[in-house]
Automatic annotation (TrEMBL):
Domain named Metallo-beta-lactamase: residues: 7-198
Protein family membership: Belongs to the UPF0173 family.
Species annotation: Pararhizobium antarcticum
One MF term in the entry's GO annotations: hydrolase activity
Protein name per UniProt: UPF0173 metal-dependent hydrolase AX760_11080
Keywords from the named record: Hydrolase
Domain of life the protein comes from: Bacteria
InterPro entries: Metallo-B-lactamas (IPR001279), RibonucZ/Hydroxyglut_hydro (IPR036866), UPF0173 (IPR022877), UPF0173_UPF0282_UlaG_hydrolase (IPR050114)
């Protein structure tokens, strides 16, 4: 499995059977390198969304039109995207699993909100915020937590799915901060590798992963905090 962090909560995941973008927030993302857009879109098969905020839906509509990639999202968000012209959609909801070519996606809880204010100034609720657990045919199980605080039912996610790779929000203010995120990883999970995200983009959230890395000190879990667009093979 090849993984690239593309800034904020956006990730590119490549396996033998799929090329996946999760929360592809490119336009307006201060951390994203625009020259990387072509590579991120090349051969794209799926776009997975944790929730409906603009810094996670991001460039989904444009990318779906350009590439024909299938978009996976909660039912309310998927219906809204359909109204915007996205045609290849797979919709689910909390607790449900969608089986795709080479992998499956399970929607799990996240403690957050999910809405967008459209051009007419109206706020539209776009379903529940979720984390996404990806089970692959021949690759490690991956859990993108989405935007969330710590919650004790993370223990059930570990029991049910046993994720080996964690993509963990650490930026504070809108999600758990680094110290709490480290507590969540150590108390509830047995990750082999974790990658922090949702930091370093906007000035009002934490700019470095230092608190998270310090909180993970002594843990058996390997912490990877790559530069934006650096390629990891896990």
């Amino acid at each position: 499995m090849k993984i690239q962090w593309l800034g904020h909560s956006a990730f590119h995941i490549e396996t033998a059977k799929a090329k996946i973008l999760i929360d592809p927030f490119f336009t307006g993302n201060p951390s994203f390198r625009e020259e990387g857009r072509k590579d991120a879109a090349a051969g794209l098969t799926h776009i997975l969304l944790t929730h409906g905020h603009g810094d996670h839906v991001g460039d989904t509509i444009a990318l779906a039109r350009e590439t024909g990639a299938t978009v996976v999202a909660n039912a309310d968000l998927a219906a809204w995207l359909g109204s915007k012209g996205v045609s290849a959609l797979e919709m689910g909801n909390t607790g449900g699993t969608i089986h795709l070519d080479g992998f499956s996606t399970t929607f799990v809880n996240a403690l957050h909100s999910s809405a967008q204010i459209t051009e007419d100034g109206v706020s539209h609720a776009l379903g529940s915020a979720n984390g996404l657990v990806l089970h692959f045919d021949d690759e490690p199980t991956l859990y993108h937590m989405g935007d969330t605080d710590i919650f004790s039912d993370m223990a059930l996610i570990q029991e049910l799915h046993q994720p080996e790779i964690g993509l963990v929000p650490i930026g504070d203010r809108f999600t758990m901060g680094g110290a709490v995120a480290a507590l969540a990883c150590q108390r509830y999970f047995k990750f082999g590798t974790v990658l922090p995200c949702h930091y370093g983009s906007f000035g009002i959230i934490d700019q470095t992963p230092d608190l998270f890395i310090a909180g993970m000190d002594g843990a058996k879990t390997k912490v990877e905090a790559p530069a934006v667009a650096a390629l990891l093979t896990l």
